[in-house]
Write a structure and sequence with these properties.
Blueprint (H helix, E strand, L loop, with lengths): L3 H6 L8 H4 L24 E7 L14 H4 L17 H5 L25 E4 L4 E4 L12 E8 L7 H7 L11 H8 L10 E4 L23 E3 L18 H21 L4 H23 L7 H6 L5 H18 L4 E4 L13 H25 L6 E7 L2 E2 L15 E2 L3 E7 L6 E3 L14 E2 H11 L16 H4 L9
Parallel strand pairs: 1-7, 1-8, 4-12, 4-13, 5-6, 5-7
Antiparallel strand pairs: 2-3, 4-11, 8-11, 9-10
Helix pairs in contact: 7-8, 10-11
Length: about 475
């Protein structure tokens, strides 16, 4: 006789896979301590978190610095400004993994001019560069934060902006996992935390993972345009819907029999609910991300009719459809891993990459606004760090910028956020985030606050979080 384990594995659900693991019980276990009510009045129901991998240059996107053109070719010491390399902020916010004597990142002293022009836009007069013509028409709906900083100057910063921890420290759950942990579901047929387009590498898995919160709180990757968008989530071709329903019914009966013998087994109840949710999702997920149901005008708004914008547009339109159906947190990777990394040929790279994202992200904001969803959804647009004001000169380079954690820009728009607003600044050369600035977990605290959660009240027994893990709400961007 076949074992129950073999029976379950033949159902095509891949129960051991993380995708199904993230759909476990709605009921809290003793170690999950989920919030049953809001900590503060919520301003948003859902978050669309857009992450551009590789580190876009704040200087050629959302924080233009004309001083770079005036003093191009000079060293920092030859300008009338304070030498940023001599600022105590450089040491306070810089943590290199390689030995300091062999690490030259972030200290290139020769100023590299801006590679694109910029203008002020909208009634707010906010300046962004000319590589964002569509987004420029949306600046009056956006709150820019120009004084972000982080500590990892390598691409592990991709995990850091999602978890809040440097790679030399203990990993923490991702911001999407904390959202999942803290909030109940709106749609029982869909997961609370969905990921579109990533992560594409095993070493960036922490950006959607839940760690000690449990796998049920991790992000569920879905594939836009795939015949099976949810891995291990379709019944086998030779199996009819009725046959599968009967199998699920039998599984439920077997679990209930086991549950009668172990009435206090929370994990068993979790598995029962997981199978039920997986069955419902087989219909709900494909419908949620079926973009062909959208009108031609909507598809064009997101750039689905152009090859250069199709990938980003498809993922952002999919995100709108998911939050429209009640998904709490959608993490979108509109471009592939590391594509914004511009050590060389920054002008060529960024002009191409901005083109691929500009129309789709502007289309998302316009679509949310005209559907009345800006009152329920907040959009976060971010990257792992900025790029150096100095010219990267490794290996004779003369066309790019290196990684720069000391100051960079993110922006937010939608529910609970100010419109046409700029918060914070970097210095004249775009090197340091001025004042106290905002470490990446300040962004986390702000997002959780918008959702009605206090990051300081999200706790797990036996897990002591640091103050820096909790962050501080950026109140100035709240409406």
């Amino acid at each position: 006789m076949a074992s129950r384990r073999n029976f379950f594995s033949k159902m095509g659900l891949g129960f051991a896979q993380l995708a199904l693991g993230s759909m476990l019980a709605e009921e809290a276990t003793a170690t999950e301590q989920q919030a049953t009510e809001y900590h503060v009045p919520p301003r948003a129901k859902s978050i669309i978190w857009v992450f551009l991998s590789g580190g876009y240059s704040h200087l050629e996107t959302f924080d233009p610095k004309p001083a770079l053109n005036r003093y191009a070719g000079k060293t920092y010491a030859e300008t009338p400004f304070e030498n940023p390399l001599e600022s105590p902020l450089h040491r306070a916010r810089f943590r290199s993994v390689p030995a300091e004597e062999i690490n030259v990142r972030d200290v290139y002293p020769t100023i590299f001019p801006m590679q694109v022009g910029f203008r002020q836009h909208g009634q707010s007069g906010i300046a962004i560069t000319d590589w964002w013509p569509h987004l420029a028409r949306c600046v009056d709906d956006i709150a820019f934060v120009r004084n972000m900083w982080t500590t990892d100057n390598d691409h592990a910063a991709e995990n850091q902006i999602h978890t809040g921890r440097h790679r030399l420290d203990e990993t923490q759950p991702s911001i999407g996992a904390w959202t999942h942990f803290g909030l109940g579901t709106i749609n029982e047929n869909l997961p609370r935390f969905v990921v579109l387009g990533g992560p594409t590498r095993s070493d960036t898995r922490p950006s959607i993972d839940a760690y000690y919160l449990g796998p049920q709180h991790a992000g569920v990757p879905l594939q836009i345009g795939a015949s099976t968008p949810l891995a291990f989530g379709a019944r086998q071709p030779q199996q009819s819907a009725l046959q599968q329903a009967n199998e699920f019914d039998l599984v439920a009966k077997l679990h209930r029999l086991a549950g009668a013998k172990r009435p206090h087994d929370e994990h068993l109840r979790a598995r029962i609910q997981a199978y039920d949710l997986a069955f419902r999702m087989q219909a709900a997920v494909p419908d949620a991300i079926e973009l062909k149901r959208e009108t031609k005008e909507v598809q064009q708004l997101y750039g689905l009719d152009r090859e250069e914008t199709k990938m980003a547009g498809s993922r952002l339109l999919g995100a709108r459809r998911l939050v429209e159906r009640g998904v709490r947190f959608v993490q979108v990777f509109p471009s592939a891993y590391g594509r914004w990394d511009s050590h060389q040929k920054l002008k060529e790279n960024h002009s191409k990459m901005c083109l691929s994202v500009d129309k789709p992200i502007a289309g998302l904001l316009q679509d949310l606004k005209r559907r009345g969803m800006m009152n329920d959804v907040a959009v976060v647009f971010c990257t792992e760090f900025g790029r150096t004001p100095g010219l990267e000169q490794r290996s004779g380079g003369n066309t790019g910028r290196d990684h720069h954690p000391n100051g960079f820009t993110i922006w937010m728009a939608g529910a609970g956020l100010k419109k046409g607003h700029v918060h914070g600044a970097t210095d004249e050369l775009g090197y340091h985030a001025l004042g106290q600035g905002h470490y990446v977990t300040d962004l986390h605290a702000t997002v959780l606050h918008l959702l009605g959660l206090d990051s300081r009240r999200l706790e797990i027994p036996g897990r002591k979080r640091l103050d820096i893990d909790r962050g501080e709400v950026i109140h100035d961007v709240l409406s």
